[in-house]
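ok so for the tutorial part 2 we go from a plain amino acid sequence to predicted structure tokens. step 1 is just haveing the sequence, like this:
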Amino acid sequence: MSGILLLSIMGFTMNIVVLFALILSVGLLVDGAIVIVEYADRKIKEGLTIKESFAGASKKMARPIISSTATTLAAFVPLLFWPGLAGEFMKYLPITLICVLTSSLFMALLFVPVLGTIINTIARVFLQFVIPTLLSLILFNIFSILTNYVDINGLMSFHKEKKSTATLTAIHPMERFGVLNLSEDYVTEFHEKHSGESSWINGGFFVFEPEIFDYLQDDSTVLERTPLETLAKEQKLTAFKHNGFWHPMDTQRDKKHLEKLWASGKAPWKIW
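step 2 — the prediction. this is what the tokens look like for a chain of 272 residues:
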């Protein structure tokens, strides 16, 4: 577009020779941009930041790109001096190529690095945070509908009321085994499987403020370890107590149990 703008400023119209030159330049004007992007992409994979990679690509590849563009234009410059009536027609070819390739040179060395940095930064944010967050929300809601009856609105209201950085849903764990009270080698009390009413566990439903990202170092960070442990120490983690139905679906046994509840028509989470 910038090359066509230069031609327009010079008063050139879109005649057959100009159109032919534009078609001829299509395969040439993208070479510089491809080299810049390829070099930057390689440096990003090597561990450099996006900004450093594109800045380095522009500096490192400037001389080769300028040289290749100059050698290409050198082949067409003599056409500017073609005498006679034929020269009047053919001068549009080198002038168009000079305008277009010079514009593509500036685009490759200046515009592409800036645009590449912006687009890659946005793409990385989407891939690392936005898309995982959206997928988590989708899975969260599906999981909520299928296996639990957690008051999401109540959870959100509780979080806003407490003004904490993070809020988790606390539930009483279902004991898988009977509990024994021992006195030396004798059993003094025996309790069959029951809800652990004296203890609370993380039910897996969270509400976070944006500052949670300050606690996430990289993709290898385990949320339940350092981030939540740190928030707990800083008194920035609150617990929304859920006393209603909750059941995990981690094992085949859990799956069969939930399917049995569904088949019975008495699934606690079926509220429609």
